[in-house]
Amino acid sequence: MKRTLLLTVVLVFASMLLAESITVIGPWSGDEEESFKPVLQAFEEKTGITVNYRINRAEDLANVLPAQFNARRAPGDVIFMWPHFITANPQHAVELSDVVDTGLYEPATLRSVMVGDELYGTAYTAKPKPGFWYRKSFFEEHGLSEPDTWDEFVALLEEISEIPGIRRPIASGNGVGWPLSDITEHFLITFGGPELQNDLIEGNISWESHIVRRPMEKLAGLLEAGYFSEPTEWTTILEQWWKGDYALYFMGFWIIGMVDDPDDLGVFTLPGARGVVSSVDYAFVPAYADNVEGAKKFIEFISSVEGQSVQVAQGGHFATVAGVPEDAYPPADREVARSIEGLEPVRDLDDTIGGAWQSAFWDQLKLLWVRPERLNSVLAELEARMP
């Protein structure tokens, strides 16, 4: 009897040691983490590989990974990270051309994680940043409507500011500065065109040029008029906006999965916008991962129609691969997709440039939000810091 019990314990322990697992590192916590869990569960059921998910922001990983890579170590088997970081460190990443079905992607989507003809990362789902969100019930209650011109937009802000209980018309989300950068990019694209965003990314135009100054002056004018709130941690102010302290909130598509009633959401771009930034989540496999083969299977899964269909069903995500059926998306997501139909997809400015300039961009925008009269010095600093 004792021998049988001992043998059983030994076998269970051995099976635990032999059970395959991977560690996936991503930036999502709270509601965003909850919407990612079904994907992890679907992968586990499909492969039998256990996933240990750990939260770590890209901003923090950028400071940690170089030292770990130099020591030939990695904190996880799959890491979600900025594309510019991946392409800057191909010697520390696993080449994935034999894992990812590139035929499912638009070529430009994967170009951000390619070095020459070699692929060092994959594109997961995308989250467009379509414009200013509002609660339909709030607009109906106060007789508000979406603007068709710039003058109507300013008039809307003024009308909102007179509603009792409103702190400011627009909530300013903040983290390390990235939500403010999304608003700024939307102004640049609306008043300078998608080509202005691309020229800034490529370094073909000065931040102090007239074509940049015009949209930035539009933004600074609204800041001076007091239409934006002070920068506040973005999930905290999201809750305040939802309960009616603010009327408008510029945020990415993921907001759909973070509110109680997505069907009450409406969204509009600045009048005249011809492009929309779409933020794609990229992932790679470190060369020093504990389980490279298991990590490759995970990369293959999240790069497939099956894997991305599970994610878009949770709301707040667009597939980057072709073949995900429209009925995989919740109704609210389909409505938003129609609202940005025809807009040109544009690369994310600060994520694409990256490096020290990205941090400087965030810092300068936080300054602009509280001191809009400093616009000239902000633009000069952004130009001076360009790589």
Question: Describe it for me?
Answer:
42% of the residues are buried. The protein has helices at 2-18, 30-47, 58-70, 83-88, 107-111, 136-141, 150-161, 178-192, 194-202, 210-224, 234-242, 292-302, 305-312, 331-339, 349-353, 355-370, 375-385, and strands at residues 21-26, 50-55, 78-80, 114-115, 118-119, 122-128, 131-135, 168-171, 173-174, 232-233, 246-251, 265-268, 275-284, 344-346. The radius of gyration is 23 Å and the shape is globular. It has 2 domains: 19-128 and 279-334, Periplasmic binding protein-like II (D-Maltodextrin-Binding Protein, domain 2), CATH 3.40.190.10; 131-251 and 354-385, 3-Layer(aba) Sandwich (D-Maltodextrin-Binding Protein, domain 2). The strands form 4 sheets. Strands 1, 2, 3, 6, 13 and 14 form a 6-stranded mixed sheet that branches. α8 packs across α9. It is built from 17 helices and 14 strands. It is 48% helix and 16% strand. By secondary structure, it is of the alpha/beta class.
Extract low-pLDDT stretches.
7-18
- Named at the architecture level, the CATH assignment of the largest domain is 3-Layer(aba) Sandwich
- The Cα radius of gyration reads 23 Å
Residue-averaged pLDDT: 92
Strand content: 15-25%
Shape: globular
CATH class categorisation of the largest domain: Alpha Beta
For the record, what is the CATH homologous superfamily label of the largest domain? Periplasmic binding protein-like II
Could you outline the blueprint of secondary structure elements for this entry?
Elements lengths: L1 H17 L2 E6 L3 H18 L2 E6 L2 H13 L7 E3 L2 H6 L18 H5 L2 E2 L2 E2 L2 E7 L2 E5 H6 L8 H12 L6 E4 L1 E2 L3 H15 L1 H9 L7 H15 L7 E2 H9 L3 E6 L13 E4 L6 E10 L7 H11 L2 H8 L18 H9 L4 E3 L2 H5 L1 H16 L4 H11 L2
Helix pairs in contact: 2-13, 8-9, 8-10, 8-16, 16-17
